[in-house]
Amino acid sequence: MSLVQASSLTKTYRVGDIDVPAIKGIDFAIEASSFVAFVGPSGSGKSTLLNMVGCLDHPSSGTLRVLATDIATLDRRAAARFRGEHIGFVFQDFNLIPVLTVFENVEYPLRMVQEWPAAKRREQVLRMLDAVGMADQADKRPDQISGGQKQRVAVARALVSQPKLVLADEPTANLDHDTAYRILELMKKMRDDFGTTFIFSTHDPKIMGEAETTFTLEDGRLMTNSNGGSHV
Ligand code: ADP
Ligand code: MG
User: Fold this and answer.
1) Strand, coil or helix: what is 76?
2) Ligand 1: residue whose CA is nearest its atom 5
3) Which among 3, 18, 91, 142 is placed 20 to 30 Å from 163, CA to CA?
4) Alpha-carbon distance 206 to 96, whole Å?
5) Nearest CA to ligand 1 atom 24
6) This prediction's pTM
7) Domains and CATH numbers, the chain
8) CB of residue 13 inside a 6 A radius of ligand 1
């Protein structure tokens, strides 16, 4: 079974008396250990879709299965547990905690959701910092490192609890092109090393070529994809 599978998926926001359809019936499947981009202009539905895959929001209709779980069946508590166990997030604005060091930022998810003994936690954090090339910056605070370095730390944090799936909503939007390219190369390397599935979104056509599978969103609908993504 696919890692993520959407079928006739829709999401409509209710704003006052008005329905705002954001996802208008889409089907796709994403296999384990793939490196996938959802591409489309602002307002096309990328964040809405990633939020549903990340169990942060429920579909309005259709089904969305993530790791064989129909996410519509999860209440808030179950969704939070599911995310903690299986999903890592990388954000556009990095979302590092400014008062914590690089090391402590990466350690944070392990303190929150899992009972890791201190020595094992430390080992895992250092392993992740090493994997993203930030081990020598472990004692710095976020305001002492560059944007690209912050995103490397965020990638380490997303992977530290060894999730099956990492979601990154426009992870390169605040980075220059060369840095953006290097962050995607890093994510791909992490996929190769750890087998983690990565799903990212972007509105930047220059970046989308980095994905192995591209799904193009336009006004809440999936366009025919160009490089081998599987439509169901
Ligand atoms: P993207 O991430 O591609 O820019 P979004 O998923 O944010 O697209 O938005 C898709 C559509 O849904 C847009 O028309 C947007 O205005 C609308 N939308 C997004 N979030 C909300 C919300 N919380 N309430 C109402 N409308 C929303
Ligand atoms: Mg968005």
Assistant:
1) helix
2) 45
3) 142
4) 26
5) 13
6) 0.94
7) 4-225 (3.40.50.300)
8) yes
- Cα 2 to averaged position of ligand 1 atoms, centre (Å): 26
Distance CA 94, CA 153 (A): 8
Lowest mean pLDDT among 27-31, 37-41, 208-212, 228-232: 228-232
CB of 219 closer than 6 angstroms to any ligand 1 atom: no
Decide if pLDDT at 22 tops 50. yes
Residue 11 CB–ligand 1 contact under 6 Å: no
Q: Separation of 44 CA from ligand 1 center, angstroms? A: 8
What own/partner pairs with CB < 8 Å and gap ≥ 24 does 178-183 have? 179/146, 179/147, 179/148, 179/151, 180/204, 180/207, 181/207, 181/210, 182/148, 183/148, 183/151, 183/152, 183/155
Please tell me whether residue 71 adopts helix, strand or coil conformation: helix
Structure tokens at 146: 């560059």
pLDDT surpasses 50 at 229: no
- Given a cut of 60, is residue 227 above it in pLDDT? no
As a whole number, mean pLDDT of residues 6-35 equals: 97
Output the average pLDDT for the chain: 94
Which tokens hold the place of 9? Answer: 């998926």
